[in-house]
Amino acid sequence: MLSGSMMRARVTRTNALIGALVLLVAALMLVCDGTRDGDLYLQLLGGRLIAEHGFTSVDPFRTIAQGTSWLNQQWLTELIVYRVAQAIGVTGLTIAYAGLLATPLALLLWLCRRKGPLMMAVLTALYCPGLWEVVHPRAAGFTLLAFSVLASIVALTWLAPRSSPGAGRRFRYGIPAILLVFALWANLHGGFIAGLLLIGAVTVGLGLDRLRGLSEAVGAHRLAVLCLTGVLAAVTITVATPLGAHIWAYLLSFRNPAIAFVSSEWEPSLGSPPAMAYLTVAAVFSVWLWLRTQSPRPLGPLLVTAGFLVFGVLALRNLIFVGPALALQIAVSAPDRETIVPRSVIGLAVAASAVALATWAATVGPAHNEAPLGSRLVDYATEHPPREGHIASYASVGSYMLWHAPQTPVELDGWLEHFSPVELRGTYAVLDGRRSNPTHLVSHLHIGAVIADRRVAIAALLAHGFTEKLRTPEGVYLVRRATATRHRQPAHPTRF
C-alpha cells in the first residue's frame, strides 16, 4: 500500500501526465490540420443562416435542391462553429477544434488513470489514428466527444464492480446523464447512432455474462434498466431536436449510394492499408488484454471493442470510435497498478508537445484554403455567373462559393445526402469527363457553367457547347454558349 504522501504524488503526477498527453494530441492535430476544406465553409454557411434567420426546414441555398425539404440535423454545430469563428477568427477556430479532438482523450485517460503510465501511453497511441478522418473542423468532432462521455458513463455505471465506492450514486445519476448526452448529441451530429449501438453492445455483453453465471455480472434489474435507457435515449433523440421524428429520415438519407461514389470517407476500410493496419493492431491489443484478464473473463468489454472494430471496417469515418471503445475495455479489464508516474515520462510528453507546436508555428501555421477555394478562378466564377442555370463544381467548391457569395447559383454544396443519386452522379460525370458528350446531362441538370480541372472534361465541354472564360493553374471556368454570363459586383467575403 502507498503512504498518504506517495498517494498524493501519484495523483498529481498522473494528472500531469494526462494534461501532457492531451496537449500533445492537440498539438499533433494542429500540425495535421493544414488546410481549410469545403466542410468548414459548409458549417460556417449553415451557422450564418441560423444566426441571421433562425432554423428552417426548407433549403434556402441556390443549388438544384433549393426550396425542397431540408433536414438540417447539425444546426447546433453550425451555429457554434460560426459564433466561434466570429469571436476568434478562423485560425482561432482551427486551434479550438484541435482542442475539441483532444478533450475526449482527457476523459478517457482519467477513466484509465489507475492502469499505469504505460497503459495510458498505449491508449493515447491507439486513440490518435482515428482522428485522421475528422482532422479538419467538422461536426463529427462533437460525436467523438459525446461518444467518449457516453462510454465513460456506461463504464462507471454498469461495468464497474457493484461493490466499488459510489456505485449506487453513479447508477442514480447515470441514466439522466445519458439522456442529456443524447439530447445534445442529436442536435450536433448524426453519429448518435453509435451511442445506441454502444448501449446495445453493452446490454448483450452483460446478458451473456449473466447467463454464464459470472459473480460480478450485473443483476437482472440493472440490465433491464440499461435496456430501458436505450429506449429512452431513442425517444429523447426524437423529441429533443427541431426535426422531430424526421431525424430518422435524415439518417436513412445516407443510404444514398451516390455518396460513396463522390466521397471516400464512407468507403469500407478494407480499401485502405493504413486503416486496416490500425484496426489489426487494435484487435490484437484487445484480444491480448482480454486474455490477460483474471478468470472468469467477462465478455462485455471485449464484445464492445469487437463491435466497433467491425463498425470501423464498414466505413473509414467510423475509425473514431475505436479509441474510446478500447478505453472502455482498458478501464474495466486491465489490472490496477500502484505506480507513480516518473517525471521523465511527463517531461518527454511535454517536450514532444513543444516540438509539435514549434513545427506548426514554423512550417504549417494557420490553415490555408485547399485548391481551388479562394482562388482567382472561383472569385471570377462568382462575379460572372451564367444568366441561366447553375455552376457545376465539386461539392466543396460549391460550399465555399455559397459562403463567399450567397447569391451564386451552384449545382451542389456539401450536404451530399440532400441530393439524389442522379444529381450527384450526373454532376460528377460532367466534372470528371466520364461522358464524351455531356449535352444530355448538362440539359437535364440545368448546368449553365462549369469549373473543371480535368483535361478530358474540359475538352468534352469545349466540344459540346461551352466557351472558355478563364484559365488558371487551378482549372478552367467554362460557360454554356447558349447562355451569356452576367457581371456581378465583386464578392466581399465575410471576414472575422
Structure description:
The chain has 496 residues and is mainly alpha-helical. The chain has 2 domains: 4-361, no CATH class; 376-480. The protein is 60% helix and 5% strand. The strands form 2 sheets. It has a 4-stranded mixed β-sheet with strand order 3-4-6-5. Strands 1-2 form a two-stranded parallel ribbon. The longest helix has 37 residues, at 75-111.
Q: Given the C-alpha coordinates, what overall shape results?
A: elongated
Q: Unreliable stretches, pLDDT < 50, 5 or more residues?
A: none
Assembly status:
single chain
Strand neighbour order, sheet with most strands:
3-4-6-5
Estimate the strand proportion: 5-15%
What is the number of independent domains?
A: 2
Taking the alpha carbons of the first and last residues, their distance comes to: 56 Å
Order of helices and strands: HEHHHHHHHHHHHHHEHEHHHEHEE
Annotation field: number of helices: 19
Mean pLDDT across the residues is 91
Largest sheet properties: 4 strands, mixed
Radius of gyration: 25 Å
Give the helix level as a range of percent.
55-70%
Structural class: mainly alpha
Q: How many strand elements?
A: 6
